[in-house]
What we know:
- GO terms for molecular function: transmembrane transporter activity.
- Keywords: Membrane, Transmembrane, Transmembrane helix.
- Helices cover 82% and strands 0% of the residues.
- It is an all-alpha fold.
- It has one domain.
- The longest helix has 28 residues, at 16-43.
- The mean pLDDT is 88.
Amino acid sequence: MSNALPTIIADLEGTQTQYTWVITASLLAMTVSTPVWGKLSDLVSKKLLVQLAIIMFQPFG
């Protein structure tokens, strides 16, 4: 993401502030989701979670 983001922001005529918000939002999402995935891995099969993550990555990644 960090390699392509400057080009994407430039093509969309974004500002440095918007660039910073994109980075902040992605870091916040990772920070929030890490404990959630950790707790889920304690409750259900890790194999199932990996498969779910792969399936979720397809449309959202």
